[in-house]
């Protein structure tokens, strides 16, 4: 398949491009497009055959539900059999923006989108290019992130093309995504709303508006459940090299671990803050990915940095964890999945890995 690449310039010339892309979607094809979170892989969300092409392009299991993207708040009405008061409050406060709501679905939503569940995920993105595309299509756009399933989500068009060249009809290049992490997903069908996936709309922001909000225990890595939202069940964001996430006090040992791993002949990748960077000794061949000093910087750059490790191919990646306040909850959720839950902690008895795997030799005294 030929994949058209179109650069959006935020001027009148974009109109023709948007019309062409929308025509592809109306014809049942798949188009990658920018949002404020990550790039999406979009198709007509009411066309089961078109939605099946998303799963084929990604290599994504079809029991993983998709998000329907709309371009006006009122468009949700035909996609749901009814909204709770909590859903209405969240729509009024955070739409358009990086918030996805789980609502009871209406009869027009295909099972291919909802993975057979009685609920559907809906989002109204704030990205202007996304809004214009959805409006031009005249239908909700079903869209997961525009990457091969399991790989880090793309936050720029070049990374989309790396995964999707020849698999989709077109890629719209709207520049780099601002937030860099997928949207927050909140189940509004429960008496107390539940965060199924943390994102740019933080736990603190939600509790300020709603009061009580719960965090789904499945976010800790339990795989024995049926996913109600995208990205809950399968390994995501994973670089090709094994990655260890150093949480809490164990992060203080990152420099010595890197030195020892290099001494064992391993090419070491390090993902860390600016403060940690100054503590690292010079290590031959080390790939250093530094995000600066703010959680927002890490959120915006995380997926790009993980993909960059794939390009340089270290043997092992050591990543510094952060605290989980604010957007830190979303960042740590993505980093834990990227590490395959190889989470290193420091206890009274020494280092341990939470998922029960054996410590690598460079972590053993």
Q: Can you tell me about this structure?
A:
There is one protein chain. This protein has 365 residues and is an alpha/beta fold. Helix content is 29%, strand content 20%. It has helices at 14-26, 48-58, 85-94, 111-114, 128-137, 157-164, 203-210, 254-263, 274-277, 295-312, 328-338, and strands at residues 4-7, 31-33, 40-44, 67-69, 80-82, 99-105, 119-123, 141-142, 170-173, 184-187, 194-197, 214-215, 243-246, 268-272, 287-290, 316-320, 343-347, 350-353. The strands form 2 sheets. Strands 1, 2, 3, 4, 5, 6, 7, 8, 9, 10, 11 and 12 form a 12-stranded mixed beta sheet that branches. Strands 15-14-16-13-17-18 form a 6-stranded mixed beta sheet, with helices on both faces. The longest helix is centred in the C-terminal third of the chain and has 18 residues, at 295-312. The N and C termini lie far apart (53 Å).
CATH topology of the largest domain: DHBP synthase
Question: Given the helix and strand composition, which structural class is it?
Answer: alpha/beta
Binned, the helix content reads: 25-40%
Strand content: 15-25%
CATH class value of the largest domain: Alpha Beta
Q: Could you give the count of β-strands?
A: 18
Order of helices and strands: EHEEHEEHEHEHEHEEEHEEHEHEHEHEE
- Quickly give the CATH architecture of the largest domain: Alpha-Beta Complex
Overall pLDDT score = 93
The largest sheet is:
12 strands, mixed
Low-confidence stretches: none
Shape: globular
Instruction: Provide a count of the helices.
Output: 11
